Amino acid sequence: MSSSPGSSSIRMPGIAPLLVFASIAAMVLLVVGPLAIVFTEAFSKGLSRFFLEIREPDAVAAIRLTLLVAAISVPLNAVFGIAAAWTVAKFEFRGKSLLLTIIDLPFSISPVVSGLVWVLLFGAQGWFGEWLIDHDVKIIFATTGLVLATVLVTLPFVARELIPLMQDQGSDEESAAITLGADGFTTFWKITIPNIKWALLYGVLLCNARAMGEFGAVSVVSGHIRGMTTTLPLHVEVLYNDYDFVGAFAAASLLASLGLVTLVVKTALEWRHAGELSATRRH
Amino acid sequence: MTFDTNLTRRRLITASAALGAGAAATPLLLGAGQAQAADALTLLNVSYDPTRELYKAINSAFASWWKGRTNQTITINQSHGGSGKQARSVIDGLQADVVTLALAADIDEIAARAKLLPANWQSRLPNNSTPYTSTIIFLVRKGNPWKIRDWGDLVKPGVGVITPNPKTSGGARWAYLAGWAYGSRVGGAAGAKEYVTKLYKNVPVLDTGARGATTSFAQRGLGDVLLSWENEAQLVIDEFGPKFDIVYPSSSILAEPPVALVDKNVDRHKTRTLAEGYLNFLYSPLAQEIIAKNHFRPRNPDIAAKYASQFKQIPLVTIDQAFGGWKKAQVTHFADGGVFDQIYKPG
Amino acid sequence: MIDQAIFRPVVPAAAKRPRLWHWREPSILPGFPLGLGITLLYLSLIVVIPLAALAIRPWELGLSGFWRVLTDERVLRAFRLSFGLSILAALLNAPLGLLIAWSLTRYQFPGRRILDALVDLPFALPTAVAGIALTTIYAPNGPIGALAAKFGIKTAYSPLGIFIALVFIGLPFVVRAIQPVLQEVDREVEEAAQTLGASSFQKAFLVILPAIAPALLSGVSLAFARAVGEYGSVVFIAGNMPFKTEIAPLLIVIKLEQYDYAGAAAVGVGMLLISFAALIVFNAAQILLARKGRA
């Protein structure tokens, strides 16, 4: 959170430097260290080698595939998130807590399992395997499978961001608009969307970061065909196993940069729109 | 905060969001072009870990050879990984036209579980369907500080042995069997079991594949000796510099990594001719020469003679003589509850 | 990156309880059938049916076979390692996250905002990248690993290495859960404590700690849930020795590579069940703490 430190007296000024130092030390050891390693290794053979590595055809194909998978999964989860939040926040119905539990479920599933379930369904030995082969539909070891695994892993992010906010906002504005004769779509478009747009963008950012960085789940359904079914995180692993450490870390640095960009946008959002982002964050 | 700056910032953020969406949509269009290219003549070779460099060279040689013969432009796609994992992927529907795996047992699994090729696949190509052989040797740190000369030295207390998990890695299975063969040579069946038990007590890290094990040894500085594919050991010296020495033990195993056509897949893709051409090409003098240059032992006697100095001759037991074939070895040693599970106990 | 909205339990507004004979409260707002329809369809296709496929698979072994897989010593050890280390990592993340959240909310120091943003990095960094980077640092020839080795401590390729990776990925969950509460508590509790004449130290531990306990517990439970299933960042640093450093998700992968689909699914179901049980305990504790805090 970015609001400035509280001006209270519960600050324990005497040991402040100690606590701050300990925090920074912990962060350097745990978080800054790995980040620094990624970039120093990526640029260890110079800038030109770095650019050579990321313009290599397989790397370009991996970047493209990663963007494609995210470009399909994130909007799907965004539409789902809006629909789920509208249903849960604006209406009272039985079984709501069960619905919320199922929305949360992907958080507690191991990524490996999130990949495995698709193999069990659509793999050649799975439930629909034979039918798919007979009809020449490729799901596993193709883009569709990568999308399915990614969608499962990142499903809750947008919904989870919108639900508390929309519950907090209530439905008074929408009810007023409907009473005044606006149709449902106009109400949704003119009132609800403006109210939630920053939280929506924020949720999409989270979802996107996780979608582009997912490794365990896509690893199970990828088949690792170079230049075809390797996403960027898988490409990092492929290069690492090729003993091309500079290339691996160059690809990794792209992903780390993506993470950093997400952080910057997120921080900017929080500074500007803290109140609109999420009900629980108002202080 | 004035209204103006607020608005500007909002616009900025909206603009950047729009930019992001635009960037994300671009590949959709590009992706369509890629799908069209897939209609061209392509072949998918699903292979194991240490053949990455080999097939890179073979594929480009074959593509130009094929072009010269048929005037067709072809693309060969590669997938690499642990041998078992790759076989599993093919069973689950990875559309491999040809498989080139570390050991026959994994292709047997494809034949048995997914029925994608006949059970007698190994008799369809010369030399047990193995266009090249290899063996398991030792890689030690420069100057060989632990004075490791033979298998017996690996079980000395304090020696760190790096080898992957035989359950998941083909190379590790060959290495385990090579150790077993040494053990039974010096101490019979009981001696063999005792030997491999001691051997795996000295293993500090069990990677899932050959490449992971090599990285642990060469890049992370773990252990004192790597049980390595012969070609992999040479490659490490090429890639990581002269920080290592190769040690040939008194005996090892003749590793035969087989290749096979995946019938049902090539028929579906209508690539049988191309796939057959590809596999036969592996036996040609041109490919055999590439094989030798990549430190695999060629089958072609002329090429083998030409590169003889590169491959030290040591007694090599074969899987058929010493273990009664892969089917038997797999069940006895590596199946759940097999010898490897028995010797690998906690504590 | 993460904010607590994601992992705070969403409590259905209890004000208007649906009457027994209505399965939903009447509302003048449109779109309920559409919204619920999309939600249910999507959840069925993406979550429910695939998990059903997972849950059904192990039964081809029969109940006894299923049980045999889960009670196999190697599986038990992997479970113990995964769940044990995840709990330990979450427990370390509690004071560590508290320390960092405290520094970020209470003190002004150069680089505070950067530090604040960096807290989310473990979440933004792809797990495989994190795994390779952590291994590079903590391997015996890495900068920190070499230092630890001088004192005879093995970092990478030991349970300690897995522990470090799990602390890494769990940290943002804890910090982000308690940060806003810390800020809120500040104002509300302040005056009360002031009038009672408590010392800074007393205030900190007797007043603030109970107030943030529910949020802390929520963050810890999420860090735990994430750690249990973690694969990408752990496999590189773990060493993967059966019985010693083999985590449960890796065991699923290994079983798959031996064509043991039913066994892999059984381990997956087992993990899911234990995770659920743990989360229920966490949630119960959280509700209890929240009630106590209110009383």
What is the β-strand count of chain B?
12
Give the integer mean of the pLDDT values of chain B. Answer: 87
Tell me the domain tally of chain B. 2
Residue-averaged pLDDT of chain C, rounded?
Answer: 84
Globally, the shape of chain C reads globular
- The H-level CATH homologous superfamily of the largest domain in chain B, spelled out, is Periplasmic binding protein-like II
Helix percentage of chain B: 40-55%
The CATH homologous superfamily of chain C is named MetI-like
Briefly, what CATH class of chain C? Mainly Alpha
Round the Cα radius of gyration of chain C to an integer and report it.
23 Å
CATH topology of the largest domain in chain B: D-Maltodextrin-Binding Protein, domain 2
Overall form of chain B = globular
Strand order of the largest sheet of chain B: 2-1-3-10
Could you describe the 3D structure shown?
The complex is a heterotrimer of chains A (283), B (347) and C (295). Chain A has 13 helices and no strands. By secondary structure, chain A is mainly α. The longest helix of chain A has 34 residues, at 57-90. In chain B, 53% of the residues lie in helices and 13% in strands. Residues 1-39 of chain B have low confidence and may be disordered. Chain B has helices at residues 3-37, 52-70, 83-91, 104-114, 126-129, 151-154, 170-201, 210-218, 230-240, 263-269, 272-281, 285-293, 301-306, 319-323, 326-334, 339-343, and strands at residues 41-47, 74-80, 98-100, 132-133, 136-141, 161-162, 225-229, 244-247, 252-253, 259-261, 297-298, 316-317. Chain B has 2 domains: 42-131 and 256-310, D-Maltodextrin-Binding Protein, domain 2 (3-Layer(aba) Sandwich); 136-254 and 315-343, 3-Layer(aba) Sandwich (D-Maltodextrin-Binding Protein, domain 2). Chain B starts with a helix and ends with a helix. In chain B, the strands form 4 sheets. In chain B, strands 2-1-3-10 form a 4-stranded mixed β-sheet. Chain B has a 4-stranded mixed β-sheet with strand order 6-7-5-8. Chain B has a two-stranded antiparallel ribbon with strand order 4-11. The longest helix of chain B is centred in the N-terminal third of the chain and has 35 residues, at 3-37. Chain B has 347 residues and is an alpha/beta fold. Chain C has one domain (63-294): MetI-like (MetI-like fold, Orthogonal Bundle), CATH 1.10.3720. Residues 11-16 of chain C have low confidence and may be disordered. The chains are: A mainly alpha (283), B alpha/beta (347), C mainly alpha (295). Chains in contact: A-B, A-C, B-C. Chains A and C meet through helix 1, helix 3, helix 4, helix 5 and helix 7 of A and helix 1, helix 2, helix 4, helix 5 and helix 6 of C.
